[in-house]
Write a structure and sequence with these properties.
single chain, 518 residues, alpha/beta, BirA Bifunctional Protein, domain 2, Enolase-like, domain 1, Rossmann fold, 3 domains, 7-stranded mixed beta sheet, 5-stranded mixed beta sheet, globular
């Protein structure tokens, strides 16, 4: 049993790597480790892009350290009250026939410990521990040779407000767990018990629970000489900007085509640097809040995609053959989810070929097909939040075209092309509208929404059955401000701005484009 106390994020991440490497070398024994963070920290998953997941300016101002885990998954916030627990062991020591079984087996001691404290905890597939539907511990792991590292957080007295400000909470996670707000989907020991237990008491209960579940007796210890040697060697790398920011960032001097796909096991984002012409992938970046095993699987796949023709069928073939050959696994996503995100990115080449700038293509999303597969659009859907708060028609359909906002120009443009325009006033109205349009035989629509809304409702848009194109909006959104619930009900008080230039470009393309190519 190793208690490394409160350490910086860089030190804790370096210790993770040192302990795992030493166990893989046979230079240490199976270990149960407790860790805490000081100062508080944000940790992104191995496959995530720091800038996309963390509000870096806020973290700098608040003194929150930012670092990267050696395991996959999403970004998490660690305040000084939380307890991190992890098992570093030989894979032979843990009897689990599948990844799903491994998650259940490794979470069982923490569930037992919480129940002994009087908390009604339970394992929630795929990798969480919950209390009456609210998350109290998240887990994840990785392998190196014959060794595994499996770790989790235990929320003791959690600061939800700071977490919301520090993280760019992915909206898609909220829908996956069918929870409307982060505040509703997490709980902590203090909230469940009504007081904050002593840290040493919590650790004692956890140790005893691990002993009973796995049938061993834990002996308190210190870092072995090899672990300490590795830790000192590794610490500069985990303190480096290259580790925290650079290792998952696409080159800034290259245009990037982006695709995104929401799956049961997380969101996959693909960014491709493509030479045009001849249409060859020169750089691939695959990020998201998923778990991949082994942890080198995604970087290895990225390397294999280099110099692949930027065609959907070629990308699918490379991904499928890589997963078959390597035995890599991405629970809840599979090779198909990875391939679809990459294909979404490749499909953006059609937009470049039609005269759109590469950077603009990341702000265009399609529903039920590639851009050229979407027929001529017949209806324009606009969000109510793009109308000024003083507008008497903000929460109603229609527009007086007074010139006071971007919506009026969009109405004028669409009507000049003989299109209907509808202001969407809440989410239920969107569902009703698309259902009605499908019944009327409308072949395709053009709409405007933020990327977070599109990703969260990607499957809903497909379920409605009407092909379409969506253009990202330009300003701060309800997702940025944590006002998703109000926006869904049509009560968002903020004002957004349509990307009129891009909306007009897409609109003219979709009213004049030639038939889809095979």
């Amino acid at each position: 049993m190793l208690d490394t106390g409160k350490r910086s994020a860089a030190e804790n991440m370096a210790l993770d790597e040192a302990l795992l490497t030493a166990r893989a070398e046979g230079a240490s024994t199976d270990t149960l480790r407790f860790m805490q963070f000081s100062p508080h920290a944000v940790l992104v998953g191995l496959h995530q892009c720091t800038e996309l997941e963390v509000r870096l300016e806020y973290c700098r101002e608040a003194g929150i350290e930012v670092n990267r885990r050696i395991t996959g998954g999403g970004a998490i916030y660690f305040d000084e009250t939380q307890i991190g627990w992890e098992v570093v062991a030989s894979r032979r020591s843990v009897r689990a026939g599948s990844m799903e079984e491994l998650y259940r087996v490794m979470c069982a001691p923490v569930v037992r410990a919480l129940r002994e404290l009087g908390i009604n905890a339970a394992f929630r597939p795929r990798n969480d521990i919950e209390v009456d539907g609210r998350k109290i511990s998240g887990t994840g792991g990785t392998f190196e040779g014959d060794a595994l590292l499996f770790q989790g957080t235990l929320l003791v007295d959690f600061d939800v407000e700071t977490m919301l400000r520090a993280l760019r909470i992915p909206a898609e996670k909220l829908q996956n767990k069918e929870i409307e707000s982060v505040r509703e989907r997490v709980t902590c020991i203090a909230e469940e018990l009504g007081y904050v237990p002593e840290v040493e008491e919590l650790k004692r209960v956890l140790v005893e629970s691990f002993e009973r579940e796995f049938g061993f007796e834990a002996e308190a210890g210190e870092l072995t000489p090899r672990e300490r040697e590795l830790f000192e060697e590794l610490l500069p790398r985990f303190r480096s900007r290259e580790w925290v920011h650079g290792v998952r960032r696409a080159p800034a001097e290259r245009a990037v085509l982006q695709g995104v796909r929401r799956c049961e096991g997380g969101v996959v984002r693909a960014q491709l640097v493509v030479e045009v012409p001849p249409g060859v992938i020169k750089y691939a970046l695959i990020t998201g809040d998923f778990y991949a095993f082994p942890r080198r699987a995604i970087p290895d796949l990225e390397a294999e995609l280099k110099d692949t023709p930027a065609r959907g069928e070629e990308v699918e073939r490379v991904v499928r053959e890589f997963f078959q050959r390597s035995g890599a696994r991405v629970p809840g996503v599979g090779w198909q989810g990875i391939a679809r995100a990459l294909q979404d990115a490749v499909a953006k080449l059609e937009l470049v070929e039609q005269g759109m700038r590469a950077e603009e293509t990341s702000e265009v999303f399609t529903v039920l097909g590639r851009f050229t597969e979407v027929p001529q659009v017949e209806v324009l859907l606009l969000p109510y939040c793009a109308k000024p708060k003083w507008c008497e028609l903000r929460h109603a359909d229609g527009c007086r075209k007074c010139g006071g906002c971007s919506v009026g120009r969009a109405y004028e443009l669409a009507e000049s092309l003989g299109m209907r325009v509808i202001t969407i006033t809440n989410y239920e109205h969107l569902e009703e509208t698309l259902t009605r349009l499908r019944g009327e035989g409308v072949r395709a629509f053009l709409g405007s929404c933020c990327e977070s809304f599109y990703v969260k409702h990607q499957q809903d848009f497909e379920r409605f059955g009407v092909k379409g194109v969506l253009v990202d909006i330009q300003s701060t959104t309800c997702y940025d401000l944590g006002r998703v619930r109000e926006a869904k009900a049509g009560r968002f008080e903020g004002e957004t701005e349509l990307n009129l230039q891009l909306l007009e470009k897409v609109l003219r393309l979709k009213r004049t484009q030639p038939p889809a190519r095979p």
